[in-house]
Amino acid sequence: MESDQMKNITVVLHDRFTGVGKKVGNELYVPVSLIEQGYDAEKVWNADSNQLNIHVTKARATKIKDYQSQGNYLHFDKNRVENWNVEFDDSDIPKTVYSFGKYYNPATIAQYGLEHYSLYLNNKDEQSKRKFLIVADWFLKNQDRQGGWPYPFDFAYFPGRNLNVKAPWYSSIGLGMAMSVLSRAAFLTKDRTFSNAALRAKFLFKTPVPRGVVAKFEGKYLFYEECPTNPPSYILNGFMYSLIGLYDLYKATGNQECKRLYDQGIVTLKRMLPLYDLGNRTAYDLTHYTTDAGYPNVAKWGYHVTHIHLLAALQSIEKNPKMGKILLRWENYLKGITAEKSQQK
Questions:
Q1: How many C-beta neighbours within 10 Å does residue 259 have?
Q2: Are residues 16 and 165 in the same domain?
Q3: End-to-end Cα spacing for the chain
Q4: Exposed, middle or buried by CB within 10 Å (0-12, 13-18, 19+), for 209?
Q5: What is the pTM of this model?
Q6: Over the Cα atoms of the chain, what is R_g?
Q7: Mind listing the pLDDT tens digit for each residue in 9-48?
Q8: Which residues are registered as beta bridge partners of 223?
Q9: Same domain, 36 and 152
Q10: pLDDT at residue 344, as a whole number
Q11: Where is the D-glucuronyl C5-epimerase C-terminal domain (predicted)?
C-alpha cells in the first residue's frame, strides 16, 4: 500500500466524542478507544493470535439446561464470595461490609454456602462440605419466630424513588436462597431438621409487605419482593431466586403449599417478564413504572447474566415456549443482537 493512500482523518462520534482515524484507500478506520467511549463496548486483544475482539460486553452466560434441586446451584462453584466486600466472623460466617456498618446479610451468607456446596459436588473436598454445613447451621440458629432471617438495618433502595426500608425487614432473595441451602443440607445429611426449618419460612411468602414479602402486580399477580419498598420495586433477580428456593423446597419435601407458592410465582413471571425487556438489555426492576422516575433502572451486564441464569434454570423446569423465546432474546443481547435484529432473522 502506497503511503500517499493513507491519511489521518477526524472522527466525530455522536457529535460528542472526537478522535483520529485513518483513511486507507476507500476504507475508513475508527480508533477502538473511540468505539469503547461512544458505545460502551469492551475489547479483548490477543497478542499471540494478533486478533482483536470487540463486544457489547465481555460478560458471558453459562448454559443451564437441566436444573437439579440437589445439584450444583446455578454454577455457583464459579463464585468467590470470599473476594466480595465481606469479613468473616469467628464461626466462618461472612458479614457484609457496608458504608454504614457490618451486618449479616442472609443472601450473601446463603451464596457462600451454595458456593461451597457446589464446590463439594465437584471435588468432594471435605473443607467445602464443612463450610456449607456451617452456613446451614447458621440458618437453623438464626431463624426468628416468623420463620425468616430479618435484615437488621435500614436500607435506602434507590433513594429518590422509594421510601427507605425500615429494619427489621425480610427479603425474598434471602428467604429463597436460605430454602435452597436448607433443602440441600437435608439431602446431604439426611436430617429433616433442615428442611423443616425451611418450611417455616413459607409464612412470609403468604404475608404482604412490609411484614412479609408479598406484593401484588396489577392487583392480582403475586410478586415476592427482594426489598419491601413503597411503592413496590419488583426486583427481578430477587423474585426469581425466591422461585428457585420454593421449587428446591418442594422437591425436597413434597410440600404442596410450596408448590402452590411456586406455581403462583410462575404465573406472575410469565405475565411480567416482557416488562423487563428493554430490547437490548434487561431492567433490574420496574421502579420506572411504579414511580415517577421515568427512565428504566438498566441492569448492569453482570445482573443481565444473572437474569439469564435464573430464567434458564426456571425454563428447564417449566419448558414454556414464551419463556424460551425471551431467554433466547436475552442471550442474544450479550452478542449485540437487539430484539429488532432478532425479529429480522
A1: 16
A2: no
A3: 38
A4: buried
A5: 0.93
A6: 23
A7: 999 988 999 999 999 988 999 999 988 888 888 899 999 9
A8: 215
A9: no
A10: 63
A11: 143-331
